[in-house]
Amino acid sequence: MLIGDNEIARKAQRNRARLRPVEVNRSKGRSRHPIFLSPPHLGEPELAYVQEAFDTNWIAPVGPHIDAFEQEFCQAVGVQHAAAVSSGTAALHLALRLIGIQPGDEVFCSTLTFIASANPITYLGAKPVFVDSDRQSWNLDPERFQTAIHRRAKQGKLPKAVLLVHLYGQSADIDPILEICDRYEIPLIEDAAEALGATYKGRSPGTFGRMGIYSFNGNKIIPTSGGGMLVSNDADLIAKAKFFATQARDVAPYYQHSEIGYNYRLSNVLAGIGRGQLRVLSDRVAARRWNYEFYQQAFANLPGIEMMPEADYGISTHWLSCITIDPEQFGVDREQVRLALAEQQIESRPVWKPLHLQPVFADCEAIGGNVAKKLFETGLCLPSGSNLALEDLERIVEIIVDLHLGKTRRIEQRA
Q: What's the pLDDT band for 47 if we cut at 50, 70, 90?
């Protein structure tokens, strides 16, 4: 069941055959229903598993679907052990606690990511140190990271952990980052919340470090409404994670607690949804990659628009299809494009605002940051759901192309 490059490539090739030359079709009869950024995409298998949970009365955060979901997820990503929890954020919190993060510790973290990547660092009283992105993948810059760690080693100030985020469905360049972590014995935790189904040199991101986490939030590639997964090849870590996630209840015939725990376990009902979604993961990946290729073809001859690059070391799911917009070349800026889409009930969003620019982290150290800042200023996430219709994609492209053509015409008229 392991999702690999070959299966994704086969399905992508089949979907690619559906692509046709993109022509702007300004049909006045085109439907104007809302188009969302990344809506859930559910089907019959999920309903069957949920019905089974109801029929057997397994509604609590314990039950057969949870055990089965953990086992099937391990098979899908190629890891030995997993703990299904209430969210990806909860999984990160557990991972950081399990490796012993204490108040005052520093944890290196990607800066171009959602705040949920860094919040668990602060839950434990530790402090994030944000690292800039590279242009190849938009993920943590390996060269800048290596330089910073070497400098810290000379100063005797190594971080207690590294939290590596895999952004928008694309793996970071793991090998050089992991090599430095191993050299200095720094635990690596991977935040693969946005990258389930992606590959790095044939393997799943999230399975290289000490622990990895995934998210099944409602906008993710396989949603369970809410939920997450913590994975590791260390059985003891996952057993301890499950202990903490169930209020750290000691083995006893009564409720006894020797440590502080959390209410973090996933419900049996949501695990059933996850099992159904996991069956169609490769189809969801292929659909989102097709969206990306449609946009890529449509914008190929538009000046000033570039797609988020796909690094050559793996396959991205393109969980979200992202573009950057150069206003000098394109004629309008990122925000004007976003507002024009919003006027037509089409949801798009700027790429993540880098965490080193967030007010809540104003006193945290940043290593670089200009690349991530520029991506935020020019980057836009386009609708990317695996259930997008061809007509939806054409409608999105039509609006963006018209913005450029309208600006071009006005410039020509003034000339």
A: confident
Last residue of a domain, one of 234, 250, 278: 278
d(CA 59, CA 10): 38
Coil/strand/helix, residue 44 = helix
User: Which carries the bigger pLDDT value, residue 408 or residue 233?
Assistant: 233
- Asked if residue 407 and residue 270 are part of one domain, the reply reads no
What is the extent of the structural domain holding 287?
5-37+282-414
382 is written with which tokens?
Answer: 């386009």
Beta carbons of 118 and 96 less than 8 angstroms apart: no
Name the packing angle between helices 142-155 and 174-183 (round to 10°): 10
Q: 20 pLDDT exceeds 90?
A: no
Total number of domains constituting the chain: 2
For the stretch 304-343, what's the b/e string if a residue is b when 16 or more beta carbons lie within 10 angstroms of its beta carbon?
A: bbbbbebbebbbbbbbbbbbbbebeebbbbbeebbebbee
User: Which residues have C-beta within 8 Å of that of residue 68, sequence separation ≥ 6?
Assistant: 271, 275
